[in-house]
Amino acid sequence: MKAILCREFGPPSNLIYEEVPRPVPGPGQVLVKVAACSINFPDTLILRGRYQFKPEFPFSPGSNIAGQIIEVGDKVNHLKPGDEIIAIMIAGGLAEYAVVDVHMCVPKPASMDMETGAAFLYTYSTSFYALQSRAQLKAGETVLILGASGGVGMSSIEIAKALGATVIAAASSDKKLGLCSNAGADHLINYEKEDLKERAKALTEGRGVDVVLDPVGGKYAQLALRAISWEGRYLVVGFAAGEIPKIPLNLVLLKSCQLVGVFLGAFSMHFPKERNILMKELLDLYEQGKFKPYIHKTFSLEEAPQALQMMENREAAGKLVIKVS
Ligand SMILES: NC(=O)c1ccc[n+]([C@@H]2O[C@H](COP(=O)([O-])OP(=O)(O)OC[C@H]3O[C@@H](n4cnc5c(N)ncnc54)[C@H](OP(=O)(O)O)[C@@H]3O)[C@@H](O)[C@H]2O)c1
Q1: pLDDT, tens digit, for every residue of 64-123?
Q2: Which residue has the higher pLDDT, 159 or 53?
Q3: What DSSP string runs through 115-139?
Q4: Is the CB of 316 under 6 A from ligand 1?
Q5: What's the predicted TM-score (pTM) here?
Q6: How far apart, in whole angstroms, are the C-alpha atoms of residue 191 and residue 195?
Q7: 191 C-alpha vs ligand 1 centroid, how far in Å?
Q8: Using CA atoms, how far apart are residues 97 and 83, in angstroms rounded to an integer?
């Protein structure tokens, strides 16, 4: 089979498009013919050896696939060849066939095409876990979303709207903010040109935002925390800006607010039943027509390194999807 391979940590340009043997599913695993795989920020970290998990070399990056099961390993009872699934994995998606642990597979709704499946599961489940489970976002509350035109950002806009919240989207360009508006954001802040804290305060009549969802970190984090309301919740989702912010804890005391960690991978590993409930609720909302994942650009498998480079360059918006077969 053809695959994109990482043989040593480095930039996307080091990746090789190669013929490799088809993998074999072990106990509790399925072999999937990959139809599509999206690019997610953690893929760029794995390539450079900067992610929590480091796969053995050589490996294919790619963490959200959609495809059809063609073979099942021992001890697989509820999935069979022919089933169409979407799945999250640590790596392995940028290949014609991928082996996936069965507990990471979710049946693909019939109404969802393969590219949407690849674009959907990772970011939407992260945002849903963050906003619904971790922040317990309520209808009528206001959410400030940083990096709002990114994968996690745009899915957070749609999820916050589905939960009945008012959304303030913050991003680095007016073009990116236009996409946030299309996704349903109520208010927009260009955090490269405007004062993030002052604008968020003004938009909430001085009260501050109930929830901040932060997949970016860096210089924006402290400004966003300063814009939070009394007893607000600050969701720590990621550090796309590269810098892990150091927060003065007096800000947390002064607002009686909560800093809330969000780690979907560990939650899924340690709480599989709760994760399945969360996925079912999320897919039900999809089937009710609440979400329209925005696919910014599609690529062939051979072009996948360009897509990874685009994400590293901060040029991606919504999702980048690789059409594998
Ligand atoms: N905690 C979890 O369970 C979990 C799960 C999935 C992803 N994540 C994390 O969530 C973050 C976002 O992931 P994603 O897939 O949504 O990424 P993405 O699509 O690339 O979005 C990230 C956004 O961050 C902003 N950004 C600011 N500085 C940047 C820089 N130097 N390079 C790149 N982007 C920069 C960009 O928006 P502007 O240009 O508008 O600033 C960009 O749209 C990542 O840190 C990822 O690791 C966490």
Answers
A1: 999 999 999 999 999 999 999 999 999 999 999 999 999 999 999 999 999 999 999 999
A2: 159
A3: HHHHHHHHHHHHHHIIIIIIS---T
A4: yes
A5: 0.97
A6: 7
A7: 15
A8: 15
Helical segments of 38-129, H only: 41-47, 114-128
CA-atom Rg of the chain in angstroms: 19
**Pair 160, 131: CB distance under 8 Å:** yes
Residue 82, both tokens: 């022919």
Q: How far is CA 264 from CA 104, 223, 270, 279, in A?
A: 12, 25, 10, 12
Ligand 1 pocket test target in 216, 297, 308, 320 with most atoms within 8 Å of CB: 216
User: CA distances (Å), 200 to each of 206, 252, 294, in order?
Assistant: 8, 17, 25
Q: Is the CB of 178 under 6 A from ligand 1?
A: no
Amino acid in position 224? A
42 Cα to the center of ligand 1, angstroms = 9
Residue type, 215: P
Answer whether residue 52 shows pLDDT above 90.
no
Q: How far is CA 110 from CA 88, 148, 159, 195, 277, in A?
A: 18, 29, 21, 45, 19
- Decide if 69 contacts 85 (C-beta within 8 A): yes
Torsion sign (Cα): 220, 225, 226, 229: positive
CATH 3.40.50.720 holds for 123-265: yes
Spans of all domains in the chain: 2-108+294-323, 123-265
Residue type, 193: K
Q: Give the residue among 232, 190, 189 at the shortest CA–CA distance from 207.
A: 232
Fold entry, domain 2-108+294-323: Quinone Oxidoreductase; Chain A, domain 1 (3.90.180)
Contact 152, 119 (CB under 8 A): no
245 CA distance to ligand 1 centroid (A)? 14
The helix (H) or strand (E) run that includes residue 170 is strand 166-171
